TrEMBL record:
<feature type="transmembrane region" description="Helical">
    <location>
        <begin position="6"/>
        <end position="26"/>
    </location>
</feature>
<protein>
    <recommendedName>
        <fullName>DUF4157 domain-containing protein</fullName>
    </recommendedName>
</protein>
<feature type="transmembrane region" description="Helical">
    <location>
        <begin position="47"/>
        <end position="64"/>
    </location>
</feature>
<keyword id="KW-0472">Membrane</keyword>
<keyword id="KW-0812">Transmembrane</keyword>
<keyword id="KW-1133">Transmembrane helix</keyword>
């Protein structure tokens, strides 16, 4: 799946996956392979969970982590979807070998 990459300068992060788009903060990030791979992992996660449930689980996981760690950044890093994406963002063949519902 080849994602549509959209530049949005007001994005609060460097990149974000909102199925079926990858949003990036500036044009230079369109060629950042690890960022695009990270966001493509999120697109696959979203597709597997039929998009809307992904966002529900993502938000619930974040809120639980926020209560647990009382720190936004730590809560974000511990979201199960983010952990998978960060762990594999430099493996450019990851999505070819990834099992369903990892």
């Amino acid at each position: 799946m080849r994602p549509w990459i959209v530049v949005w300068s007001k994005l609060p992060a460097s990149g974000m996956a909102l199925f079926p788009f990858i949003l990036v903060k500036n044009h230079a990030l369109k060629t950042d392979r690890s960022l695009i791979n990270h966001e493509q992992i999120h697109l696959r996660q979203q597709l597997e969970l039929l998009v809307i449930p992904f966002y529900v689980f993502y938000l619930l996981n974040y809120l639980i982590n926020l209560l647990r760690f009382r720190n936004h950044h730590q809560a974000y890093l511990q979201i199960c979807f983010e952990r998978e994406a960060f762990a594999n963002e430099l493996d450019f063949d990851y999505l070819k070998q990834r099992k369903l519902y990892r």
